[in-house]
Design a protein that fits this description.
Blueprint: E1 7-11, E2 18-36, E3 43-57, E4 64-72, E5 81-86, H1 98-109, H2 115-132, H3 140-150, H4 155-172, H5 181-217
Helix pairs in contact: 1-2, 2-4, 2-5, 3-4, 4-5
Length: 233
Amino acid sequence: MEKDEFNKVLLCISCGNKTLMNKVASYENKVEDWTNCEYSNQQELLGISYDIWNLYFCPVCHNVTLELAQWETYSSYPKIVYEIIYPTTISKSHAVPLPIKNAFEAALKVRHLDGAICALSIRRTLEMMCKEEGEIKGNLYEKLTALGKRGVLPPILDKMASVLRTLGNDAAHAGDKDFPPELVSSMIEFTEIILDYVYVLPSKLAEIQSDIDKEKTKPETDVTKVEITDLST
């Protein structure tokens, strides 16, 4: 397999900069798939799959990004699929609706650049969540209150969302409100917890319940009783 270039332009989730990163480490796992040939005693190679982990160093914030590249030879036109493994964000979950995911990713990109802009993006994320959950009337406070009354948000998460809404309002006005890194980190953490509760956990629960239901519907294995003759007689 042709290896990736030594340096690569990537978006650093840690600092929000899209920059040229230096590859500092790489590990490849190669798996060959063999089968017995039908007309001979020899084995035939069906295909090869590759998992390659590349570790990149950000020259801006001095943090690392771990990228997984996957590739296989089974198809006629194989493609390399890339995925950022670290840092991880809840926005990568397929359970989170795309508009909400995009809004939250916008907040992550600027978290180390401008805390006020990050707060505005988080407020927009909450607006998107309310819309996705069917609450479109009133201001954000009224929408979040409605979600709380419906049980979509439990009391503690309702309070978290209210704090985020207030911070988003502060960011929207030209005041003296500071957004230090610790506060921005808490805002990100609160938002991840809310999205995890509303979307990710129900999705995981549905998957587990589906597996349980499949196990229940499996036909029982027939056990044939065999009479054993006592040979000692």
